[in-house]
Q: What sequence folds into this?
């Protein structure tokens, strides 16, 4: 049984044309192939690889919905997830530190199963410290914790790193394998020594209950210091996360998260058009494409591990020959689909989101109506035949086959549901569609069969009409 609060939040988001952050399984339909591709990606990331995907679709076709679906599935699989909408002040790089601003937002939006809406960084670092403490206590007692595992193995981030128990059984250096391995994995990466210095300082501040220093180091992790002088004064660290190196730190975070027990890291960036069509200066646009190329190469060339990257964009942000991604030849040659590809989406980095089928729309309407009716202690307002009638009505619009989106579909249907529930309880679906409801029906919106059924005087109004 769906919780009424969840149902209300779902409907509130849909009425505003937004994707609900919670309760997506209640309204998710279709996208079977797309979901299969993403779950295969997650399996590969769990094995130590990295993946790069572009979700392509027109406005309202479900890119943001799919991105939220990916986030929810990733959290269920014990990933940590960062998500961000690119904007004028948030890009991959820029002369005004737009790339660093993207990093800052991503860090603030770090999500886990326990913190699905972001701000999970401090919680994750505490998990790491708890595991370190468990090892040290085990060494002092000369024995392993029960079962050779670390404590606090809850449902989120609870998989014990395989080297922890092995470390306790090491006769020459008992209990040191896992901490030393974490240190080695981090320090062998670019900027890894600086990151590990900050990590060690944070552990010390946490144990001494030095809240001011701990907060300063959290700010360092989030890239909030403007220069090295400020960082040195507040944290004692002579480097800062900058516009040029922020993605290198994301790669470090992915390794770190994996080593402390999570499956990996997912990075989701929406509104790709902000770094393509919306950048007028060709040099700035090219620099962003170069950064995007570097991210792609890292994912497929093992420069990054345990990381999934998903970007969402409209077709023109990808295919436009002047400002789209394909205007940059190095990216085009990597992302372009083989002529032998066919309709299979597994082998290409670009996932094109097609429109839902009429049958899938009918199922979606049934689910949305059940949520709406439940809030008013009802079962349904309309029969299955009436919902199919609505789907048929929407598909009769000119260009609907290629341009009708779930956002427009749900907007119209929710308008009818609100009227049905509040003002016109006795009206049928036919009354709403064809008898002056505010959803105005014109001959350009309906098929010839429906036009023939209109009253004669209404039909005569359009005789002889020309442009």
A:
């Amino acid at each position: 049984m769906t919780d009424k609060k969840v149902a209300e939040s779902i409907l509130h988001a849909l009425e505003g044309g937004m994707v609900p952050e919670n309760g997506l399984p209640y309204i998710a339909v279709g996208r079977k192939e797309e979901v299969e591709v993403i779950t295969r990606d997650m399996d590969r990331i769990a094995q130590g690889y990295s993946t790069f995907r572009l979700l392509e679709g027109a406005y309202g076709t479900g890119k943001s919905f799919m991105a939220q679906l990916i986030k929810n599935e990733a959290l269920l699989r014990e990933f940590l997830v960062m998500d961000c909408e690119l904007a004028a002040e948030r890009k991959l790089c820029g002369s005004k530190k737009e790339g660093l601003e993207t990093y800052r937002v991503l860090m603030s939006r770090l999500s886990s199963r326990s913190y699905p809406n972001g701000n999970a960084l401090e919680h994750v670092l505490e998990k790491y410290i708890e595991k370190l403490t468990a090892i040290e206590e085990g060494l002092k007692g000369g024995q392993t914790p029960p079962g050779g595992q670390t404590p606090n193995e809850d449902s989120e981030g609870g998989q014990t790193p395989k080297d922890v128990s092995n470390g306790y059984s090491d006769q020459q250096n008992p209990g040191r394998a896992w901490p030393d391995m974490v240190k080695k994995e981090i320090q062998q990466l670019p900027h890894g020594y600086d990151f590990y210095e900050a990590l060690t300082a944070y552990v010390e501040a946490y144990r001494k209950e030095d809240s001011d220093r701990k907060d300063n180091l959290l700010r360092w992790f989030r890239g909030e210091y403007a220069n090295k002088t400020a960082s040195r004064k507040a944290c004692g660290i002579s480097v800062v996360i900058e516009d040029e190196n922020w993605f290198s730190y994301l790669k470090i975070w992915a390794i770190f998260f994996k080593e402390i027990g999570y499956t990996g890291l997912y990075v989701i960036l929406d509104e790709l058009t902000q770094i393509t069509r919306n950048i007028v200066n060709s040099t700035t646009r090219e620099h962003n494409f170069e950064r995007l190329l570097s991210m792609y190469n890292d994912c497929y060339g093992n420069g990054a591990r345990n990381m999934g990257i998903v970007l969402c964009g409209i077709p023109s942000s990808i295919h436009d020959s002047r400002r789209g991604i394909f205007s940059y030849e190095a990216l085009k040659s990597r992302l372009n689909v083989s002529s032998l590809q066919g309709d299979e989406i597994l082998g290409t980095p670009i996932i094109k989101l097609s429109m839902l089928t009429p049958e899938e729309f009918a199922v979606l309407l049934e689910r949305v109506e059940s949520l709406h009716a439940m809030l008013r202690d009802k079962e349904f307002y309309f029969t299955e035949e009436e919902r199919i009638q609505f789907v048929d009505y929407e598909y009769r619009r000119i260009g609907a086959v290629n341009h009708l989106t779930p956002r427009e579909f749900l907007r119209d249907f929710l308008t009818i549901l609100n009227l049905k529930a509040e003002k016109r309880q006795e009206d049928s679906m036919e009354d709403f569609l064809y008898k002056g409801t505010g959803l105005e029906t014109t001959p350009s919106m309906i098929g010839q069969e429906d036009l023939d059924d209109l009253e004669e005087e209404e039909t005569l109004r359009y005789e002889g009409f020309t442009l």
About this structure: The longest strand covers residues 50-56. The domain at 23-120+245-352 is CATH 3.40.50 (Rossmann fold). The chain has a mean pLDDT of 83. The first helix runs from residue 4 to 15.
